[in-house]
Hints:
By secondary structure, the protein is of the alpha+beta class. The chain is built from two helices and seven strands. Mean pLDDT is 82; it is low at 158-163. Strand 5 (121-128) and strand 6 form a beta hairpin. The strands form two sheets. A five-stranded antiparallel sheet has the order 3-5-6-7-4, with helices on one face. The protein has a domain at 43-154: Thiol Ester Dehydrase, Chain A.
Amino acid sequence: MLVETERLAVIVDTATGKSQEIPPHRKQLLQEFSRRDVPLVIALPSPPENQKCFCYELKVTTSDTDQLYHVNQAYWMKFCMDCAAEAFAQGFFIHFLADPFNSLVKEVKLLYKAEALAGDTLSVLSWESRDQMDTLFFLVKKGQTECVACSIQFYKPGIQSHL
């Protein structure tokens, strides 16, 4: 299998921006398409205290957005990858002696928390896991608001693709 994806369905009240309870008939329909139980809450860590983080600043451009000028979901991952590439280029990482994106990606987790629009300035924080030397973490913020949390786990060096 090349890619497996898990999606969490959420209904958002457009007036309040808050999630709402999914109606029972929709829950049943969604469960019919589900292959396994998925936790209702996905948690990704914030930087631990006293954790040194690399900070990458960017301004969201119109080409980073969808038709409603919200950041397109694919660009959140690009922002994290750009941050990691810059951190590696500046020698920030301790566990990654080679560009992490020259390794195979084992797992990506993205948690969307808030929107960002064209023109917004974002800060992408990146840090290495203290426990998992094969994982990078990211937190994308707009001011003090956390927009996206992400983790990228890589296969250990030396594992080759047979594709």
